[in-house]
Each structure stands twice: as C-alpha cells, then as structure tokens.
Amino acid sequence: MVLESILSSPHTLRSSSFRKQFTKNEFGSWSTLFQRHRYLLSALTLLAILCTVYLYFAITLGEASDPCFGLNGPQKASCHVEYLKAEARGKLKNLRHF
C-alpha cells in the first residue's frame, strides 16, 4: 500500500534518489564489477582455500583410521566383513546387558 503510493507519485519518480548512480559504460566493465564486490570475492576465495585444506586433511587422515588401511582387493573386502561381524557381536553383547 505505502509502496504503491510512493511508486505512483510523480514527484518521487523524478527524484534523483531513484536514478541509477552509474553510467552505462561503468556497469559493463569487469574492473568495476571487481571493485564493487571485492570483499565478497575475497571472502569466497578464503572459503575455497579453507575448504580445500579441510578436505585434504579429512581424506588423508580419514584413511588412516580405517581398520583395513593398506589392504587391496579381496583382502580388504574380507577385512571389512570380519570387522562388521566383530562390530555386530559387540553390539549384541551390549544389548544383552539391558
């Protein structure tokens, strides 16, 4: 309601506050776009670097905690099966105590 009255007012439309503050040539250049969004681009760059470092350490350190780390092929598969069996037995023992 209030917005409609402001937009429909002829005096308000001629006001200099609603005019664009940049020229057509200024809007299209990459340097102007970079200058206007320098803080946002810097924050996104920092975020990308931090995410990359986090993923690097999550992947490299995450593999070492695997009980079957270093095994390949059928040995790794049988190791996982044995690990799951042992884990299931441990859960069953915990359930019997209740």
From TrEMBL:
<keyword id="KW-0472">Membrane</keyword>
<keyword id="KW-1133">Transmembrane helix</keyword>
<keyword id="KW-0812">Transmembrane</keyword>
<feature type="transmembrane region" description="Helical">
    <location>
        <begin position="39"/>
        <end position="59"/>
    </location>
</feature>
<protein>
    <submittedName>
        <fullName>Uncharacterized protein</fullName>
    </submittedName>
</protein>
